[in-house]
């Protein structure tokens, strides 16, 4: 671990999903409450800081309709200077824990009852994390005392996919690839996330769906504490199956079979005479042939429903009549 490591943690703070996660049910035999989650998360964050003096940390909260910076080791999120001293706790650890809880409490008080059902600001948190990493990477590269950072993002998710966020999430994934940022995903509650699976796969990260959420600390320590620089020496979890489905650009629905514009590669759930993205017009005969060639009606999936086995490849009919798989293999 000669190279310093930067860790950006994005915490999904959906009130509805955390309420469901804390309840015991047949589909959730190992409940995890929000209080228990934070107590285990703090141990993991403190472990990252303790691994190396030069390690940096930021924590973002994805709240309904917004994303906030809860803590930054560089001082952007002001640390609580009035932390009560504890003889049994290392002061930097105590400051980290207290700052996150105080920042979170201040923002939660501003949430109205009607806002609790608003989709969480995951895209905003991802964008802020990438901008922060880009800035500190440039500063580190200019500093002769540091060779560079080993940046990564860890997403702690409990919410299902939001089909309307497909395009901005994919843009964030491509930006992470360009910045060489590893995106790890820990799915604590709910069905597998199609978009976050793709984020972890495309950036070389790990996607872990917890079978026992109440053992969160063990998963975090064994799977996500080692930085990317030394993971090649360890046996980290990998994805055996990846769901490559996409969301259509017209109705923002996750589709199994779609139609791709041959000019701009926009995806639609049914043949359209004019592409809404690049305004390309398609011949009527082509549309008739595509409609006749459909083996089944266009299937859409509710984001809250369990995802289909990812081993099933997605067939996508292009506007020029050629079938294309989303993973790049030609039919």
From TrEMBL:
Its main location: nucleus. Keywords: DNA damage, DNA repair, Metal-binding, Nucleus, Transcription, Transcription regulation, Zinc, Zinc-finger. GO terms for molecular function: zinc ion binding. Component of the general transcription and DNA repair factor IIH (TFIIH) core complex, which is involved in general and transcription-coupled nucleotide excision repair (NER) of damaged DNA and, when complexed to TFIIK, in RNA transcription by RNA polymerase II. In NER, TFIIH acts by opening DNA around the lesion to allow the excision of the damaged oligonucleotide and its replacement by a new DNA fragment. In transcription, TFIIH has an essential role in transcription initiation. The keyword Nucleus applies. GO terms for cellular component: transcription factor TFIIH core complex; transcription factor TFIIH holo complex. It is found in: Nucleus. InterPro entries: TFIIH_Tfb4/GTF2H3, vWFA_dom_sf. The keyword Thylakoid does not apply. Component of the 7-subunit TFIIH core complex composed of XPB/SSL2, XPD/RAD3, SSL1, TFB1, TFB2, TFB4 and TFB5, which is active in NER. The core complex associates with the 3-subunit CTD-kinase module TFIIK composed of CCL1, KIN28 and TFB3 to form the 10-subunit holoenzyme (holo-TFIIH) active in transcription. This is General transcription and DNA repair factor IIH subunit TFB4. Belongs to the TFB4 family. GO terms for biological process: nucleotide-excision repair; regulation of DNA-templated transcription.
